[in-house]
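Discussion board: Methods & Data

I've been asked by a reviewer to show the raw model output for two of the constructs in my manuscript, not just the figures. I'm not sure how much to include, so I'm pasting the format here to get opinions. Each protein appears as its amino acid sequence followed by a line of discrete structure tokens. Is this the kind of thing reviewers expect to see in a supplement, or should I convert it first? Here is construct A:
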Amino acid sequence: MPLGRAEIAGLIPHAGRMCLLDEVTAWTSEKIRCVARGHRDAANPLRAGAELPALSGIEYAAQAMAVHGRLCAAVPRTPRAGYLASVSDVVCRARRLDDLEGDLVIEAERLAGDEAQVLYEFKIFSTDMEVLTGKALVVLDA
């Protein structure tokens, strides 16, 4: 069942423009797939000067992970905060996100975790190009 931006914003602590995801297109107990379109927006809050660095995709992936945790009830209520404790195995195949013409497709797969911490593997695509991949450990302050 797809979810739109308003439903996503109700699941995570990110508000306004910091809610980077526009849509959840699919999810299971292990995986989630989201779409983001604001990477080309000049008012994107993650922009550094005149561009949006590709490594900003880690925040897009972290938000997908947060939504997934809430949808699967692994995290029973919105945490006050989630902290990226570490990222590893990151491979970046683009320098920036704002010059990609297609939507960003963000996929995250839960590898392990509990209510206090979760390990995910993530992938970000645009059109047919794999832009960013890696793993992230998130610690939750519930």
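Construct B, same format:
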Amino acid sequence: MGRYLALAFGLMAVFLAFFGLANWLGIALLVDPSAALGQGGPAAAALGVGLLIADVLLPVPSSLVMTAHGALFGWVGGTLLSLVGGVGAAAFAFALGRRGGPLLDRLVTPAERQRADAVLERYGALALLASRPVPLVAETVALLAGTSPMTWRRAMVAAALGNLPPALLYALTGATAASLGDSFLVFGLVLGVTGAFWLIGRRAQGPTKATPKMS
């Protein structure tokens, strides 16, 4: 699995480079999108969802976007918009992974691919679920999951479950006009909830089965 780990860290480095470049350019929309979202309405809703999807490649402050959704559209509307954007981002990264499958075959051996596919088939959905609130890791996991035999349906269900806690909690934060300090508290709560999902899923899957070693 060494090459897969190297690939994962390489992907995170590429995503980080994209983020650094956008920050260096000082794009206002990617620093604080609140002004662009304005007073709400269909255009603001579409922009917010689009920003969350673009977060796969750009340093979008997703927590600010999701909080703004709650402030502009209420906690129900804000949750739904952020959920659509979050699942859309996972779908985008997953699709990139699907497209990159042939390239991956050139980078790893068949034995490594088989072993990684077995691991991703067993734990990929849980990893996809638990990683959704974590920058860089979320994009990398979704992209690697796309290279595996995991089905679209399973991936999107996991993405929806993983995105629901942050979508709901940040929407509630925005709808109640909570402070930035509360937003940091929400982030910690989101990580705790998704971590609990991971543990529940691991327990539901039962004992780990040994996978064949690579030569």
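Answer (T.O., handling editor elsewhere):
This is acceptable in a supplement if you add a one-line summary per construct. For B, something like: The CA atoms of residues 177 and 186 lie 13 Å apart.
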